Amino acid sequence: MKTMTIKAVTAATALFGAVAGAQAQDTNYPQQPVTWVIPFGAGGGTDQLARLLAAEADRIFGERVTVENHAGAGGVAGWEYVLDQPADGYTIFNASPTPIITLVSEENPPIEPTDISIVGYLSSYSALLIGGEEAFPDWESFKQAAEDRAITVGGTNSTLLGIANLMDQAGVEVVFVPYTSTGEAVTDYLGGHIDTVATTESTAVTIVPENGRVIVNSSSRPLLPEIEEQLGGDVVDAKDLGFDGISFPRWVGVHPDTPEEVKARVAELVGEVAQDPAVKEAFATAGSPIDYVGREEAAQDYEGLVERMRSAVGLLQ
Predict the structure, then answer these.
(1) 237 and 282, same domain (yes or no)
(2) Residue 315: what pLDDT?
(3) What is the pTM of this model?
(4) Residues 286 and 306 in one domain
């Protein structure tokens, strides 16, 4: 009798597990509003693009998608916020390499760069160095100025890293001034508190040509012709100077403990949003065209990205 009871319980448990698994695979996610977290202040490139995406995401997700800014600690505060939320897929994290750089720069980071489950890459961006037309009419004049005095370069960690990589190869010494958001760096640049600012393409088009020019594109990827035209044309790239550049992905992830079926559904929806014609047009117009990478490939690349950032942080010290 005891053996039969155990077998009956085991069978019932297996049946329940199979039913639960089938229900999980057929998840109805989402069934409530979704929060899209940006670990930077308002006005930066990632923030601007997230709001363009959210404007179209509601109809694809079938629920309200709201962007929230949780800035601080070099982008880590927003990451910690996500990890403090339920692991249910309703809090999505959208960031650049900036918080990764912050984490790998610390001896005892509060979290690890692997404390996330990647669901895709939306795009990648370049780090452009912008300065005044009169002070820095070209790259050679910038190099000469840096030999004569301490030139300050402001920006977030990721854009500064792109510039630092180029300056290291060129043998040019500058003073890096890190900011928690691109918006703050641009404000100080426009106010004359720093000499130059490192920004993404989407931010650069709001500055150039009225308030400066692009001195150099430190990225490994050339600018799109239409973006280069908006920036005055003939933008000098790292490769034009004989140097190797770096480009940076805008990645999307969820709490690592999120159920697998929910991760898969979030990844599917993020992919649909990223490839939506209205979103692609909005990103392209903003100067950061969609360069979508799916979950599996993005997750694999992310591991290498962390190691690349870990190797490169010394350039900013």
Answers:
(1) no
(2) 84
(3) 0.75
(4) yes
